[in-house]
Amino acid sequence: MYVKSITIVDIDDDNKENIIIANRFGFEIKVFFNYFNGQLNDETDSISYAGIHKKVVGDLNDDKKLDIIAIGELTNNITLLYNTGNGTFNDKIMISTNSIVADIDLVDMNEDNQLDIVYTNLAAVVVLFNTDDHTFSHETLISIVKSANLFKVININDDNMSDSIVTDFGRKMSIILNHGNKSFIHYRFYSTEYIATYIFTADIDNDNKIDVICGYQDSTFGIYFNKGNGFIDPPTIYIAEFKYEVLFIDDLNNDKKPDFILAQSKDYKISIYYNVDNGMFPNVRIFPANGDPFVLKPIDINGDGKMEIIVSCYDGKAYAYIGLLTILC
């Protein structure tokens, strides 16, 4: 099983976080239900879907159930899987776009309390607006971004509207402001020394402004601190202890500060950079992994208030496995 992505979410409304994985080579999505005893049940029946690249979850039709949206690798199709509420999903609905979908998310872009589909297609940022009958509109261009690859949606200028941060293969990061009424403006861009391989948003320095974090090809990561007026500072660059292949951000020690998790394949290591009050990361802990870690997500698997990390590792053969790395913070 080649686990391409892991999503942690309560899919069946029992107040326990479940695990949804995308099996790239098995062409399927699987859901593992959590019993809060440190164990996961056998997965649900597989949802067939070829060449899964990424998936996100959200309530697409206002029925209070979390649905799954997935994109394939090097395809122009978006697949919607509607949650029935009993751990199964209805037959998939396919939306075809005009070009290959590189990244995707679900965000309310026009303040109508409905989740819209936002994606990059290597040439632009595009939105499919969710309509009153919970179908999706034709493609609306947000902004042309040549070679766009990754994006995140945040409120960058404190106007309560969803703006976009977009990185591209040309080593730039763009800010696209939302002006309301489905209108957007390409506001400014920042040059980066390397191509971004990861992008996250979080309040790193506890100033109630959402900052932007990028991981780069050279195994550094940069924090763009948000000034709150549509501007962000040039990045503060951090050099990792080793060349990493995976970067993730979450609060691992319940101190209300987002920490950084890095995984290295060569020596089978996972490192945690703990955040202190000023947005610095002086404390690092290193844990061994039982293989080459290439996908990870934090989860409190047994409800004890301590975070574990779900890790998918490559074992040198043609498959991967899901393991639990327990972090005692």
Automatic annotation (TrEMBL):
Q: Report the domain of life of the source organism.
A: Eukaryota
Record keywords: Signal
- Please report the name of this protein according to its UniProt entry: Uncharacterized protein
Which PANTHER family has this protein been placed in? Answer: ATP_GTP-BINDING PROTEIN, SENSOR KINASE-RELATED
Q: Does the keyword Signal apply?
A: yes
Q: What InterPro entries does its record include? A: FG-GAP (IPR013517), Integrin_alpha_N (IPR028994)
